[in-house]
Specification:
The chain has 309 residues and is mainly α. Helix content is 83%, strand content 0%.
Length: 309
C-alpha cells in the first residue's frame, strides 16, 4: 500500500473517532427522559421521583458483578454465621448497613486480598516455575484473611464509636442537667441538647427524639436506647431518664452525678494507662538518651588517653 492510502486510512479512522466522541458528548449532555417527565408526574412522591435509576459506571458494575457478589455473600454467611452478632455490631457502630451488605463488603475485601496474592503468585510462577499448589493455598488464605479483616475492622469501628460516646457523655449529661434544672421538660431539654451539640451520642439521642416525636412513649424510647447501646454508661443514663419520666423523680442531680462519675472513671483509666505505658516511656531514655550521655561523658577522656600515648 502506498503512503497516500495509509494516510487516507489514518485520516478516516481519526475522523470516525472524533465523530464518535462528539456524538457521545452530545448524548451525555442531552437531558434524560425521566428528568424531563418526572417533574410533571404528580402521582409520584418526591422519593420516587429522585430514586429513578441513573445509568452510570457504578450501576453497570453492580449489574454485572452484583449477582456473583450476592451469591458469594450468601456463601460467606453460611460458612461464618453469626448474623445476630453482626447486626448488633453494625447498630453499635452506627453504620447504615444490613447483614447482607456487610457480607458483600467482606467478599470485596476478600477478593482484594485474593487479587494481591494472585498477582504475587503469577510473578513468582513467572520467575520461579514450580508447584502451583502452595500459591493456590496462599490465594485462598488471602481471601479468608480479607474476609476476617473486614470483620475485625467492624469491631474496631464499634470500639472507636463507643470511646467517642464515653468522651462525649459528661458534656451532654451536664447540658441536659442544666436544661432540666432551668425548668424545661425532659423532652424539650433533650431537643435543645441535640440541636446544640454534635457527635455520636447526639446522633443516638436524635434518633430517640425522632421516635418520641412519632408517638412512641418517652420511657419506651429510652429503654430501647438502653437495650441497643453497648456502652454501660449510656444504658444507665437511659434507664435513669426513663425512670425519671415515669415516676417524676428529680433528674438534674442524677445527671450531674453520672457526669462526675464518668469523668472520674476517665481520669482513673488515664492514670492506669500511663502506669502501663511507663516501661515503654523508659525505652527512649534507656536506649537513646543514656547512651548518648555516656558517649559525651567518656569520649573526651578516651581521646585524651589515646593522645597521651
Amino acid at each position: 500500500m502506498t503512503p497516500a492510502v495509509w494516510g487516507g486510512l489514518l485520516g478516516l479512522c481519526t475522523t470516525a473517532g472524533v465523530l464518535l466522541v462528539v456524538a457521545r458528548v452530545v448524548a451525555i449532555r442531552r437531558p434524560r427522559l425521566e428528568m424531563r417527565v418526572l417533574p410533571y408526574v404528580r402521582d409520584l412522591d418526591t422519593t420516587q421521583r429522585t430514586s429513578a435509576p441513573v445509568a452510570g459506571p457504578g450501576n453497570v458494575v453492580a449489574a454485572v458483578f452484583g449477582p456473583f457478589l450476592r451469591r458469594a455473600a450468601s456463601g460467606v454467611e453460611r460458612v461464618l454465621g453469626g448474623s445476630a452478632s453482626v447486626r448488633r455490631r453494625l447498630s453499635r457502630a452506627g453504620l447504615d448497613l444490613d447483614v447482607h451488605d456487610f457480607r458483600v463488603q467482606q467478599v470485596v475485601w476478600g477478593l482484594a486480598g485474593f487479587g494481591v496474592a494472585a498477582a504475587y503468585g503469577l510473578l513468582r510462577a513467572w520467575t520461579h516455575p514450580g508447584n502451583p499448589l502452595p500459591l493456590l493455598v496462599v490465594c485462598v488464605g488471602a481471601f479468608a484473611f480479607g474476609v476476617l479483616l473486614r470483620d475485625n475492622r467492624l469491631s474496631a469501628q464499634v470500639r472507636q464509636r463507643e470511646t467517642a460516646i464515653v468522651a462525649e457523655f459528661p458534656t451532654v449529661a451536664e447540658l441536659l442537667a442544666l436544661s432540666v434544672a432551668a425548668g424545661e421538660a425532659p423532652v424539650a431539654a433533650l431537643a435543645r441538647v441535640v440541636r446544640r451539640s454534635g457527635g455520636e451520642l447526639s446522633r443516638d439521642l436524635s434518633e430517640v427524639l425522632a421516635r418520641i416525636r412519632t408517638g412512641e412513649p418517652v420511657a419506651d424510647a429510652f429503654d430501647r436506647l438502653a437495650a441497643t447501646s453497648g456502652v454501660p454508661v449510656v444504658a444507665r443514663f437511659a434507664h435513669t431518664v426513663a425512670v425519671a419520666v415515669e415516676r417524676g423523680t428529680p433528674l438534674a442531680d442524677v445527671l450531674h452525678a453520672q457526669a462526675a462519675d464518668v469523668r472520674e472513671a476517665g481520669r482513673r483509666a488515664l492514670i492506669e494507662q500511663a502506669s502501663r505505658k511507663e516501661i515503654f516511656m523508659m525505652i527512649p531514655v534507656v536506649f537513646l538518651v543514656l547512651p548518648v550521655t555516656v558517649i559525651f561523658a567518656f569520649w573526651p577522656g578516651l581521646i585524651g588517653l589515646s593522645l597521651s600515648y
